[in-house]
Task: structure prediction
Amino acid sequence: MKTNIALIGFMGSGKTAVGEVLAKKLSRKFIELDSLIEQKAGKSIPEIFQQDGEIAFRELEIGVTKEIAAMRKAVIACGGGVVLNKINSDRLREGGTVVYLTASPGVILKRVSKEAGQRPLLEVDDPIQTIRELLRFRTPLYERAADITINTSKLDINGVAEQIIDRLKEDESFTG
Result:
């Protein structure tokens, strides 16, 4: 029985902002995967990447994803790289509908540039090029994991949440 809604997508696609609004509209618990990872690790994600490396972060992510995928009636905002490990995608799909939020590289850069120091993967000389490269690699993984895809580039947060709700109503495997 699929009762969770898991939001996946690249950084800056709107997962957290949309997830909070969606959870309110549907009277559900909102869970941000990256925040749970930070709580478990006792440090921020940039610190985990810096001190322990990406592999250690991904291992934490697998454990936390397993925990939250077992919950019921939650809206889950996943980290941008959650799909890098197929086990995460499979677990999220078992108990929920996976919604892939997309945005253009330019929109992503505009959204994340307000968060200096919070995006370890974009601490580079040419962030738009890095975004394009990461998207080229990750897009097939997002698409494979997704039940529903919504482009957020030209929508506001409420508009995205409403589209998700409309699409969920059409999904026979989803039980609200």
Remarks:
- Residues 127-145 form the longest helix (19 residues).
